[in-house]
Amino acid sequence: MVGDTSVYRKVTYNPTSRVTTKVNKLFHIIGDKELVAQLRPQNPTPPKIYGLPKNLKTNWPLRPIVSQVDAPTYKLSRHLATLLQPYTGKTSSYVRDSRHFVELLNGIQLQNTEIMVSFDITSLFTNVPVDEVIQIITTLLCGSTIPTGYVESIAFCLKSGYFLWRGDYYLQIDGVAMGSPLAPVVANIFMEWFEEKALESASVKPRYWWRYVDDVFAVVTRDALKDQTSHLNQVHAKIEVTMEEESEGKLPFLDVLVIREPNGRVTHTVYRKPTHTDRYLRADSHHHHSHLSSVPRTLLNRALALCDHKYVDAELRHVRDVLERNGYQWRQCRRLLGITGEVRKRPAEAQRTPAYLLYVQGVTDKIVGTELRESKFFRGPAEFLTQLLLQL
């Protein structure tokens, strides 16, 4: 996993102290003392790398993830990512999520000479050219409200990547680390530049081209498909593009299965990977009811949002079977159909003092219901509560 010498280099020292010192020197760019106090690293620790198997790929290669929580650059990277985010998603090809993609599909009529395909970038994050993306960001921020000095901080966070692996330290000498708060937004910025360059120079442009980070859904003519794929692989030396064609009139994209009807009309339903187990948080597990109810609510919401009307009933039958196998009562879940998709506004609440408690089934509920009626009760995972406590 760390054997690629074009991306990683082993070193004999712990870079944490050096990186922390540099981060503290960069805070003069921000100036806001209160913000600096929030971003300053406290007792930083080295990032750790681990791998998630790509179980749909041959030989199950690992996807490297560098956990940067508590790393010297983590808080600063998160702040910079927040500043950069509004400058992405401005292109006509941008796909926000699966629901947005379904909206884009409405009204599409395919010709017999056209084919649905998806393009994917091989290992995008580790192949993002850092020096080039810094130049792209510099150009992007020209004339913006973000001070130009921030580019120095962005460049440092991108170039100071390192991690601990089996007792040894490694520097990441190119690419961005999946696990860094900056990585998704930087990858998106690079892909916007890449697709603009690719489409401008293409001899035949796809009729439809929609992108979610490094996944692209496109409709091209069958005759131009081979040339289109070859062209995409010539845009940048580090970027390798793979292509998947529709099979039997079907093509998965995100968690949507796009279906070509015999008349050329495009429909859609929910897509689940072959490795999906349909196992969810069981109804009889030791969790708060708000967490448990999120399971049927999410599945029902997805069915109604992603399915064309002709596939809704089949998907709801599948959801019912899955929920019952996970211990849920369909009669209770069915009530959610009446409120799924509705936005219910809560009345404004008076300012209250929050109380933070561990959730113990049967005990916490009684305390909240009797002793703490005037306090706000946050129900969330331990990480969420930790963040709340840090803000006190």
UniProtKB/TrEMBL annotation:
Pfam families: HTH_animal, RVT_1. Residues 33-270 form the Reverse transcriptase domain. Transmembrane segments: none annotated. Signal peptide: none annotated. It comes from the Eukaryota. This is Uncharacterized protein LOC113499589. The lineage of its organism: Eukaryota, Metazoa, Ecdysozoa, Arthropoda, Hexapoda.
